[in-house]
Amino acid sequence: MLTHTKENSYVCEICSKAFALKHALKSHMLTHTKEKCFVCEICCKGFSSKHNLKSHMLIHTKEKPYVCEICNKAFTQKGNLKSHLLSHTKEKSYVCQICSKAFNRKGVLKSHMVTHAEEKPYVCEICGKACTYQCNLESHMLTHTKEKHFVCEICSRAFTLKGNLKFHLLTHTKEKPYVCEICSKAFAQKGNLKSHLLTHTKEKSYVCEICSKAFALKRGLKSHFLIHTIEKTLYL
Description:
GO terms for molecular function: DNA-binding transcription factor activity, RNA polymerase II-specific; methyltransferase activity; RNA polymerase II transcription regulatory region sequence-specific DNA binding; zinc ion binding. Keywords: Metal-binding, Methyltransferase, Nucleus, Repeat, Transcription, Transcription regulation, Transferase, Zinc, Zinc-finger. It is found in: Nucleus. One of its GO terms (biological process) is methylation. The chain is an alpha+beta fold. Among the domains are: about 30-65, Double Stranded RNA Binding Domain (2-Layer Sandwich); about 65-115, Double Stranded RNA Binding Domain. The protein has helices at about 1-5, 20-35, 50-60, 80-90, 105-115, 135-145, 160-175, 190-200, 220-235, and strands at about 10, 20, 40, 45, 65, 75, 95, 100-105, 120-125, 130, 150, 160, 180, 185, 205, 215. It has a two-stranded antiparallel sheet with strand order 1-2. Strands 3-4 form a two-stranded antiparallel sheet. A hairpin with a 6-residue loop joins β15 (about 205) and β16 (about 215). The chain is elongated and about 85 Å long.
């Protein structure tokens, strides 16, 4: 009956949070004691509540019971489905106070704020390189270990990053998803399209320090430098 009357009779003596049910208070107390009584039989990871263990087990079973009614995309946890639904509603409640850019999730806003602070808390212990995000550091670490977990199923070529494998697969499929809106020329990679667009804008950001000749692409400037290098060699 307490759940209907909204009466919260069970109060935590540590933080004063109140609960309608006794077992809810009991579960809450574990957050203070840090006791993890519920252990996963597969990977031995411990949890403070049975509910958290149940959610964790979905990682092993690959079960995705929470399905989006709009696009049928499935998720292992209800919270992930809730976050996903915001992509359909386009609702962006979390606004950056510095640049006014809005986001649909608090976590995304938090990640965005790092770009303003220029904070790079994740540092490589091998070479000292600092990264903004942990995932960036993890990707960077692969350059030291030379581990290549992402293997092409067509030619067996291996890559350290998933993104590199994704780009490589385009060489097999011949797919060119990035299309120029001006001349309709298509490219396999976004970076190539970006470079191509400079040929339309006539923007030349790369300037030779010796003769002031400007180029739209960095590689164009690099090739041009060889002319000066050869000239120096001839006159030595």
